[in-house]
Amino acid sequence: MNSYSFVAADLKKIYGSTFQAANIGHGKKVEFSIYDQAKARARAGMEAYGVFVDCRHPTHGNLPSFLKIFKSDIPERRARTEFLIRTGLTKSHDWLFQGVPYAWLPGSVVNGHRLLGHVAHQIGARFGGPAEDFSRLKNQQAWDASYTPAARTMFAAQLCCAVAAMEKLGMVHGDLSGGNIMVGPGPNGDMVCSLCDFDGYYHSSVQPLPRKFDGVSCRPLGTVGYQYPELAVQVDRDQSATDPSIMVLTDRFALGALICELMVWSLQVENLLGRNELLSPQEILGRSLSSLPSSVTNAWPTGFALLERAIQAGSIADLPSPEDWLGVLGISLWTEKKFTNPPFFEFYQRSGTRIKLVQKAALSHTTTGNFGGIAPDLANVSYALVDSVLSITVNWPAQVFVVTDGRSQSRGMGPMTVKVNPGQAVVANGWEIRAYDGTPAGS
Length: 443
Description:
single chain, 13 helices, 30% strand
């Protein structure tokens, strides 16, 4: 039986103490100083306690940090944390992922108490002061008064970028919520939004945490009000919290709920809803926003239209992407690129998760036409190549998506015309049309 445990009463015995941990990279001991009780800003969660510390690093100097002390010694935890550190999220995206751990502490002893945990940077500290989580900020009058629509839009865009970056690594945060996004100082004196608490993340190559350990729940499955409908149904059916197969497999629904909160939240909205989250479990399980007051949804119609699409999505594959949310925020990542060679197309038919190659074809010598020669119903899809810029017109009354590097972005309901860069694809009505700058190798 594992003898390790750490309880709330132990916190009082370690405030103001120092301890050392091995620095594998430099072969030296690194000293940590735990803040005194008044300044430690202790936090408690399902899995751990957290306090402010200073790390006296041999290379980087003093690093204001956040020490997370786990309540139990779960065997999977160390490998999961070390994998998270190795992802390089903090190096690649700097302040956006300052809440990702930078060190694992396998068991330092402080005043007779063994600490099993990890250390991350104090979010915001190196830019002027500690950040605060959104769930606390939005309960304050200062949120209404201090954060302009432009600032809220920027916070939402930063969340989109964070989720998109994790998706590219095949990673799911697993518990995006108002309590796990932080607003505070960032580069150049700007206020920024960052993620924290990555412990429940999902990645296909890493063992998940167990649902329970020693009879105690230890893996959150998102937070009520942010769980996507499929997950909410699974959680509702598993009242005993014993089904290990239930995983949080996407952050996209939680992202949408958070963005809508960021954009419209006020104390008036909180009083109107009678809760601290935008969505209730009943609305998520009922897959409808119809019970939300019109004064809330009318405050940002395009955003709530996309959230309605998310709550009614047939599967998680149909949930709006971070790029979709950037679009309704008025931020475009699309840059027009010209074709240097005659476009070459591949035509696929899609059914659920299955996809079948139907035909390949180079663009004919004409610069306009349709794809009816590939399949009769593709006569409803036409093309135009003008000044080496390709446009594809979809004449179906169906959702139209543009796919870039495997990531889809909804462009809305057809009929419509979209510009397509080399390497992109258009998806609509069960068809995927991929465009290449000339004939790709092997075709």
